[in-house]
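for the writeup, i need someone to sanity check this before i put it in the appendix. the sequnce is what the collaborator sent (i think, or maybe the updated version? ugh). structure was predicted straight from it, no edits. if anything looks off just tell me and ill rerun, i have time this weekend
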Amino acid sequence: MKKAIIFCHGSLVHPEKVLTYINQGDFIICANGGINHALRLKLIPKIIIGDHDSFPIRLKNKLKDSSVKFIKYSTDKDQTDSELAIDYAIKKDFKNILVFGAFGTRLDHSFANLLLLTCLKYKTAKIVYIHGYQEIFIIKSQHTIKGKKNDLLSLIPLKDDCLGVITKGLKWPLKNSVLSFGKTRGISNVFIQEKVEIKVKKGLLLTIHTRI
């Protein structure tokens, strides 16, 4: 399935892994300075979006004769460049969106990007943040995750308690359990088979799959 690939301006951990997620024909969007990551990987985006405050002029000159579309916003805006990039992908009706470089040294941006996953306006798409060997996304009802034995899986309640949580394929299974908001019970579970099933009756589960 064709998907949107977004590069933000945070840290690109294990860049050699990034290309394994990208297929020919995927739609590449760069949020402002995320263009540095794309060009490092020899990828030319379709769209560069943001206020361009961290976009080097030399790169703009380099790309001016290409087919890249520049969408510029004022620095006095109410959304981060990352949010603008995800909004663009949603408006273009992408149902599968992978985001790289969402986390870095700016804790405020990192935390805000995590919380973007809870926005109702994104409910039509599956948005996954890739950070090195970690895949980060939200589970709202049920989901099957493919991995390898000994992979790690953390389930973290967002907004409120998660009720009726059921897991299969993990070392410490949950059986109609409550994961309480602000508690750490769901951290660092372990794959014991290559397919893990997760269900939640109520709540939003921030899911972090660490591939070993």
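The mean pLDDT is 93. The domain at 4-132 is CATH 3.40.50.10240 (Rossmann fold).
thx in advance!!
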